[in-house]
Amino acid sequence: MSSVFGAMFRVSTFGESHCAAVGAVIDGCPPGLPLSEADIQPQLDRRRPGQSALTTQRDEQDLVSILSGVENGITLGTPIGLLVHNRDQRPSDYQQMQNIPRPSHADYTYQMKYGIRAASGGGRASARETIGRVAAGAVAEKYLAEHYGVEMVAWVDAVGPLQGGTVDLAGVSRQQVDACAVRSPDPVAAKAMAELIAEVRDNEDSVGGVVACVCRNLPAGLGEPVFDKFEALLAHAMLSIPASKGFEIGSGFGGSRMLGSAHNDPFVRKGARLGTVTNHSGGVQGGISNGESVYFRVAFKPPATIALRQHTADFAGNDAVLEAKGRHDPCIVPRAVPVVEGMAALVILDLLLRQEYRQGGR
Prior knowledge:
This protein is an alpha+beta fold. The chain contains eight helices and 18 strands. The strands form six sheets. Strands 1-2-3-7-4 form a five-stranded antiparallel β-sheet, with helices on one face. A five-stranded antiparallel β-sheet has the order 9-8-10-16-11.
C-alpha cells in the first residue's frame, strides 16, 4: 500500500509538499485515551522546518488540528483525523526543474510509475509527508507511555564522517538531545557536526548522517514470527522514511565481525524476570522482544536537492545543467529524530495490541 501502515493501529498519511495540507488518519486507536493537540504539537515542533540555521528556511508552524475521533478530549475508538496546513508553499521555485529530474531524487521514478507527478517540492516523496507519521506517532507514544510505561529517545549519532560518542542508553533523554540544534547528546561532537553542516550548506551541498534510537521498558514477547518479526517491522518502518538508506539493530553489521562467544548475550536474573548481561541482540531474539531495551540505528543519505551546479539530463535525454532552487535541508538527520521516534512508536503499539489480542486482553 502507498498510504497505510500497521495491522491493528493503522495509519494512513496524505498530502504533498506544496498542496493545501498534509496529515494522517489513525484507525484502531483504543477508546478512552485523553488526547488534545497539545499532546501532538511538541513532536511536530521538533520536526518542523525553519527551527535553526542548520535546516531548511521554509517558514511553517505546522500547527495540528484534530478533526475527528475525539470528543471532550477523549478518544472514541473511531478514526482520528489529523490535519496540518501548508502555509508557506512556493511551487514557483520548481518551474525550471519540471523537465529535469533531479539526480537521486524521486522525480524520475514517480514519473515512470504513474505517468505524472507533483513537480513542486518532490510531491508525495517529499519529507513533508512525514508530518503525518510524526503526528500519528505522537498519539501512539502517549498511549504507550500511559498504559505501558514505554518510551523512546532518538538522537543524531553521526553526520558525514563525524561520529558521536558513547551514549547512556538507560539515561539519555530528549532534553539532552534537544540541548543543541544538531540533536546530538555529545556536546563536543555536536559542535563539530554543526560546523560541518554549516560548511556544506554554504558550499550549496549536502551531507548524510545516522540517527540512533533506544526504546525502553518494553515487555518480552512482542513480534510476530516469521515474517512480522519485531526487527523486520522496525526495518520496514525506518526504511520507509524519505532519504533512509540503511538499518541495523543491536550489534548490527559490527556483529558479523565478532565470534559467537563474544556476541552471545548470557541470561541473568533481573528482579522478577530473566534479563541479559549484554545486549548485542538489541532487545530482540528470534524476532521477539526479550525485555531488554531495543536499540537500532538508521542511516540517511545526503539530501538530493542541492543548489550546486550539476550536469545531468532532462526527461528527453538531452544534456542539461541543473541548479536547483527552493529551500532544502543541507542535512536531514536533525529533523529526522522525531520521525524515527514516531515510526518506532507505531511499530511498538501495533505489536502490543496484537499481543493483547492473542492473550485475550482486548
